User: Fold this.
Amino acid sequence: MRAVRLGLKLGCKTHRARCYVIAKPRSILTQYKDVTARHEWSLVFARCSSLASTQNSNGYSSQSPTIYALSTASGRAAIAIVRCSGNLCLEIYQALCPGAPPLKPRRAALRTLLDPTCGGGKDTEVIDSQALLLYFPSPNTTTGEDVLEIHIHGGPAIIKALLRAIPKCVPLSQSHIRYAEPGEFTRRAFYNNRLDLTQVEALGDILSAETEQHRRLAVSGMSNTLNQRYRKWRTQLLCARGELEALIDFAEDQHFDESAEDFVRSISKQIRTLVSQINKTTANAAKGELLRHGIKIALLGAPNAGKSSLLNRIVGREAAIVSSEAGTTRDVIEVNVDIGGFFCKFKDLAGIRSSATDNSTIGEIEQEGINRAKAHAREADIVIALIPFGQDQKSDDNTGLAFDLEILDFVKQELQEQKRVVFAMSKSDLANQSAGELVEPAKLYLQNTLGVAVNMIPISCLGDGDDTAQSEIDSRGIQGLLDHLTREISELTAAEQIEETSSANQSIDASLGTTQRQQELLKQCAAALQEFLQIIHPNELAGTTDTDEIDVVLAAEKLRVAADCLAKITGQGESGDVEEVLGVVFEKFCVGK
Ligand SMILES: Nc1nc2c(ncn2[C@@H]2O[C@H](COP(=O)(O)OP(=O)(O)OP(=O)(O)O)[C@@H](O)[C@H]2O)c(=O)[nH]1
Assistant:
């Protein structure tokens, strides 16, 4: 009779009303056949479908003005594309090309564009004698409305003439045609269900992608995988909540003690899996942020170790001052570079040393430089520690390398915190031995000092890297270091698989494209689910999921909060939320997008 008591305790009218909204009828039908016989499941079905279609109904209507804008970059170019969207596209065409044959949908047509204010007579002004026009009738278009693309010669005067002419194509043009606002084409696509919010965000990413890896990330974000995943999770939560609330509602006069316990246990298992998937997504999102905003790589080493020389070799220009005078670099020099398709931010730092190493005092300015260097190295995703060959006063006799204890201490701490550290043996051209002879004793020394096995790449910044007359180390060292770095970055940014089936046929997991906004909402979602599990857990820990002891109403409420977070991600949330998000997203969009 436990279930009966539960029903009496919780089965108030309010909860009954709510439970109809999100029930997953099929599974409940199977589990609780007796219950279904006595309740109006048609009502449940009806409410379910209305809930499932909480899509934005804020679509642009046929009354919305037709918009137009230059969709290619402004300035001189071979071609320029002006795009129009709305129900006046064909009127615009007829006014610009009076008497020309009708446009066939999705077929390019070569036309002469005329100034619509000249009436098409003998003195008619030609805007462009060879324009290519494409007409896409709604609804299967980028915006969901009729779209007209006008490809013209890309001279600034032609562009201006066409943009002046378009609003004059239709009488009373002010109210019916206007220049598009930033991102308005995409906004219309969103409201007409051609794109969801996650795809709109990925579109912004595509436009700003500068490196190969960022491009791949943005393209995978546009693929709809992420959106489908969020929707699937939300449906799972809606179903779980529906079943839970049905339990409240129908428990009143039913006897399903054991099955109810199994049922709660099965829901909590599902939720645990979901929490783990969400956590993996947010971890992958952090890796995606690295691809988007750049991997921070710090060049660490003693004064004169060759940090600035290495930076200059990597970027292929004199970005930092190189001098034989120790302590030349006092502050951070930051340079962005594309390494193996990854966006990297290299930081050349002040040399680090301790006064004990060479018995010389460290002045205030130098100390500040050292402090800053350490702070930047701590923040970096990867540290390249430069150990120079043969700097007399500090050389280790066995290896000929200048190990500075201050640096090794610092690196040891970083390694303990799982930081990726790449060791480079700089100035290896000064040694007479081969790379193998140099590297092995150095690696052994470092392993003994740091307590972990490390890699050591011999490099030289002297001469031209392509000069085969240079020693083996000179010509290959820097490229070897960059190849090693690329491998480290690939590992650092490799996404963890979210679902069994995911990534199987994808080169990059879509979760890498999770934006900051989505991450925040995913964290809120996971927090609500954790609270749900805490409500269910105490009983599980006691070896039972006695439904009598569980506050089912509160548990169902946590599922509602979690499902709402996912709805906000995809734009299925309240219209106020969506507007707020769109405002932020479209702020970054240009006119014509
Ligand atoms: N032989 C040799 N000399 C190098 C190499 N790399 C740098 N040097 C020389 O070492 C000196 C110091 O080089 P930098 O690149 O300024 O060293 P740094 O670590 O940036 O020095 P600070 O700014 O003082 O910390 C310069 O005279 C360079 O020409 C190398 O690979 N081989």
Q: What stands out?
A: Residues 301, 303-309, 322-324, 326-329, 351, 426-427, 429-430, 460-462 surround guanosine-5'-triphosphate (CB under 6 Å).
